[in-house]
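sanity check this record:
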Amino acid sequence: MKYEELSEIERKALNTSMFKAYDIRTKSAELHAPLMLRLVKAIGRYFIEVLQVSSVVVGRDARLAAPPLLELAIEVFADMGLDIVVNPLQISTCQFYYSCMQNPQSAAVMFTASHNPGSYIGMKVMAPGFQTLAMGSGPKGGITCIREFYCDNSDQWSSSKKRGLVKVHRYLDEYISYSLKLAGLEKDSLKGTSILVDYLCGAAGTEVTEALQFAGAAVRARNLIPDGRFPAGDPNPIIAQSIKPTWDMMRSGEFDFGFCFDGDGDRMDIMTKEGEQITPSFNLSILIPHINEFFKKVHASGFFGTSAWDPHMYYDVKANPLSVVYQAKSGIGVHIIRNGHSFIKEALRRNLKKQYFVASEESAHYYMNFPYNLDDFSQGFAATENTLYFTLLTAKVWAASPELYMLALKRQQSIFREREWPCHFFSDEYLEPVVTEVEDLFRKQGLKVFTAMEDGSSLDATLMRRGLPEHIDVQTDLTGDWLQIAQRISRSEEGMARWEVASNSQKCCEQAVADIKSITDRYVNANLAIYE
């Protein structure tokens, strides 16, 4: 039966809401054994019938629901005739992506729920050539097609005459070496540098600690041991309760700077020795000259043909306008892009030849076109995440030029920001009315509302600005009063809307936050929503 033909009761019974915009994600209790088997078979059928691959890379992070899913996937995929490359141990999503770079002709699936609480499980699915699958994106609609196979539950691909081979391969050492080399760090390069790192019991502890220690840094690691129960709290650096002990320790003054990671290690927050966050957009404004230097070598190799040197990057809807101006001043063209891992990666992949190199999200994700081979650029690039590389590059630049980060902090402190906060509505029916009411409120206050990127496609969010142009660049003047509000409905979480506010006026920032909460408070007070 097709998805559109299912009743609401049938959809709920099959837990079809787990098929999100950018991945597959659900509470593990709602993915019981029969549905688990049904889902894995649907993914395998998609790999064979649509992608027509003969092999798949699989992996998992530290969460408790991941091992049984990975075990099931190995058995089912092999029975369907697919060869499998697997590291049975818990690994970060970025280490998993590196393993995919070593097997570019394979499909891939990572069992993770990223920063979600331990009660969640999910899957990130990829096609060969590093094409991240999303709802409506990818061969025959990507996740949309997988959902159709899941609903259809056909057994035509349930077995194969020849069982696939299962090969165990760990890429940890190679991944660390690749990331160190790309970041330009050698043994003891960071000697004399003291770094505090909190892994929140997630999967990135081994690779990050080992790489930083190889480079000579003195590392104080907190919550280093992977533990899917997440005893330190939800594995999300944004959650104050989870990360507060580390911020308090940071303020002791014993460390030069610090990092915090989420459960699957693809988010990286930065801490100053005073215990303040440097946002990803401000960090990237410092790193861009070094990234440009690398891609100048790529340009000199002839990879871009006869095109003149003309680097570009994407910035997040929520990025602080001041940071975007400084990104542009660092020598790169800046372009706004909607949220969503798969969307950003696909944009980088599609526009590599136009010299689009890097992107970041204020949720602490960094993206780049990474070379498959650091010594031979002709082998191509993968638009993906390697948070270890960005961690090492940040550590290298900070250790060498701490004044750049103090200047960035000073600039960041010159504006007022309420970091993105979520409101979870107990029914999706409230989401559109809420965001529409917020938009109408600020439109009446004179803010301009933007909902499209430069090419006219949807931002999948609402950006509201006063005193700012639609397109920010190196010439943008921020000396006058300005206010920016970013509003979006989360595509990876059920019933979740999010807001972020920034302004060069504390009064304007606080008033905008109060105005938004005057609307959402009604729902919270009526027990229709909760702040998370």
Q: What stands out?
A: The chain has a mean pLDDT of 94. The first strand starts at residue 24 and ends at 27. The chain has 15 helices and 23 strands. The CA atoms of residues 322 and 478 lie 7 Å apart.
